[in-house]
Amino acid sequence: MVSHAQWKLARDRKVAESISEGEDSAESAERVRRRRELDLAWDLGQAVYDRRTALGLAQTELARRANMSQPQVSKLELGGSMPTVPLLARLARAMDADFSLRPDAEDVVRVSFIPHTATGEEAGAEPPSQERASASAPEAEADASAERAAATG
Question: Is residue 85's pLDDT more than 80?
């Protein structure tokens, strides 16, 4: 019997493979939409990972601070789940940061966690260089693939 997690990974793999077929149909539009969702989930997870490691926190400590379990943090960081806005807010508080989701002109959503400064800088400032973006160029996609392979072993 296949577990739900294995089924979901197989489904996501199938969606990712089918995008390269290049069909011009409603079905291929749905595949593109799903691929963007997968990219966003990965980018959100990478932003959480980047901020957590910048703080020197273990997954268990972040989980404790955000009232989550360590497996939930791990799944989130690997792009295996799409967090809700309230969960992102809890994570941001737990990591002493604000989060930002900004769509650009090409439907690519830019994700970042903006650290609070010692002087109490306002959240409206530009995000620092750890900003993550959905893969929109071949180089970025190659980098993301390498990061995914490294993260999953």
Answer: yes
> Residue 78: what are its φ and ψ, rounded to 5°?
-90, 5
Does the CA dihedral 32-107-137-49 come out positive or negative? negative
Per-residue pLDDT at 36 exceeds 90: no
In terms of pLDDT, which residue wins out, 56 or 12?
Answer: 56
**Which residues does 149 contact at the CB level (< 8 Å), separation at least 6?**
none
CA dihedral (99, 31, 141, 5) in degrees, to 10, reads: 70
Contacts of 16 by beta carbon, 8 Å cutoff, 6+ apart: 35, 38
Is residue 113 helix, strand or coil?
strand
Predicted TM-score (pTM) of the model is 0.60
